[in-house]
């Protein structure tokens, strides 16, 4: 095995992606053959979103570069300006640091700026959690665009690896290693809920719900109407405590956040927290009777923690699901019915024993090995696997149909 010194940059822009990337960052920082640079930007540097860069620093990491973005204007024009600002800032950071590889995760709009900056800087891009689908979101287009700009892929499931390959990517550069978040849940001790509940002013002996709802970026109202429906449904469960987490920095986030604040104010036992941090959030989800909302954490983390999910609306359409995920429409009756089902003994028992489709073996170790050993020479050169190449593989059916030309 060829082992060489590598300078690897991790780009993080939100509390959510850092919570997933944290164990990989630790493994790279502790590896003597790797020089790690953390580039933090976006919501990490926003007071409105909890100034979560402190979580990175408190974990003992130095910040190599900071990329602030204007996130106060969540209109389409404002978010476009923020994306342009991200591209500029990440270009400066990558130009100054000149890493051998740059890592991004997921489908946040700002990583499109990071990917474009890496492309222009001739820095090979590593994409984690590619190949997934979230058909109700702008994220869908962002994710696949980043896949086509990336040179190394770490999808969280084999089905997603197959999709990346079907998009024309080289199978030798695609590693279906599973989810870092699921591995973290399996390998780490989850923080004690009683102490966290006390911090939040909640009774650790009473049932609690984790409520996480983000804008639906392709909906005309960005998901405000479903929040009103969610409030009506949750009002039918006054005995339940609720922890409502902050809203992503997405188009329409201000209106959705305002509606979520009103929801919290109107419920007798609800608290709203801009950012719990990954450690406290996992503790909440494990203790909760259900995760309610439209966050990917209800699809990936909650099943791994044995907690049922009430998944509202189309935001997660297309993602693989565990049996413990209950999908419902964006109406009060549908949400209340799904939550009643989630709270039933049968659903609680199912969630406690069901398997997640995002599990893997030694996810972090496999990533580190690939990052350290992938040959850098020629990595920037990508060869598109055309449809004829894909169709020649008898075991892969992607539904390709040749076009009949009219002569």
TrEMBL record:
Signal peptide: none annotated. Keywords: Glycosidase, Hydrolase. The keyword Protein biosynthesis does not apply. Residues 27-372 form the UDP-N-acetylglucosamine 2-epimerase domain. InterPro entries: UDP-GlcNAc_Epase (IPR020004), UDP_GlcNAc_Epimerase_2_dom (IPR003331), WecB-like (IPR029767). One of its GO terms (biological process) is UDP-N-acetylglucosamine metabolic process. GO terms for molecular function: hydrolase activity, hydrolyzing O-glycosyl compounds. Pfam families: Epimerase_2. This is UDP-N-acetylglucosamine 2-epimerase (Hydrolyzing). Its EC number is 3.2.1.183. The keyword Hydrolase applies. It comes from Pyruvatibacter mobilis. Gene3D superfamilies: Glycogen Phosphorylase B (3.40.50.2000).
């Amino acid at each position: 095995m060829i082992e060489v010194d590598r300078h690897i940059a991790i780009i993080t822009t939100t509390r959510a992606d850092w919570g997933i990337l944290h164990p990989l960052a630790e493994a790279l920082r502790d590896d003597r053959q790797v020089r790690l640079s953390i580039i933090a930007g976006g919501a990490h540097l926003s007071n409105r979103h909890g100034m979560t860069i402190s979580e990175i620093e408190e974990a003992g990491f130095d910040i190599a570069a900071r990329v602030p973005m204007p996130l106060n204007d969540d209109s389409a024009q404002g978010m476009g300006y923020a994306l342009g600002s991200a591209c500029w800032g990440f270009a400066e950071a990558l130009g100054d640091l000149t890493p051998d590889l740059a890592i991004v995760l997921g489908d946040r709009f700002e990583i499109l700026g990071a990917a474009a900056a890496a492309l222009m800087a001739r820095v090979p891009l590593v994409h984690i959690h590619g190949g997934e689908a979230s058909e109700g979101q702008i994220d869908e287009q962002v994710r696949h665009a980043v896949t086509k700009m990336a040179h190394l892929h770490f999808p969280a499931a084999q089905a997603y690896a197959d999709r990346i390959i079907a998009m024309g990517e080289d199978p030798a550069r695609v590693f279906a290693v599973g989810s870092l978040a699921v591995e973290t849940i399996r390998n780490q001790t989850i923080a004690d809920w009683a102490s966290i509940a006390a911090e939040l002013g909640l009774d650790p002996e009473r049932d609690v719900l984790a409520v996480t709802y983000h804008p639906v970026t392709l909906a005309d109202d960005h998901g405000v109407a479903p929040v009103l429906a969610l409030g009506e449904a949750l009002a039918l469960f006054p005995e339940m405590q609720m922890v409502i987490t902050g809203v992503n920095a997405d188009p329409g986030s201000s209106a959705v956040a305002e509606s979520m604040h009103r929801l919290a104010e109107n419920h007798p036992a609800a608290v709203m927290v801009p950012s719990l941090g990954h450690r406290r959030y996992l503790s909440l989800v494990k203790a909760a009777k259900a995760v309610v909302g439209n966050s990917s954490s209800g699809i990936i983390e909650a099943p791994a923690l044995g907690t049922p999910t009430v998944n509202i609306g189309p935001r997660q359409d297309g993602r693989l699901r565990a049996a413990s995920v209950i999908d419902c429409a964006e109406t009060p009756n549908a949400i209340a019915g799904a939550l009643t089902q989630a709270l039933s003994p049968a659903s609680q028992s199912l969630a406690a024993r069901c398997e997640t489709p995002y599990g893997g073996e030694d996810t972090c170790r496999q990533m580190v090995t690939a990052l350290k050993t992938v040959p850098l020479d020629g990595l920037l050169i990508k060869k598109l696997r055309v449809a004829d190449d894909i169709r020649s593989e008898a075991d892969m059916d992607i539904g390709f149909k040749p076009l009949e030309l009219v002569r």
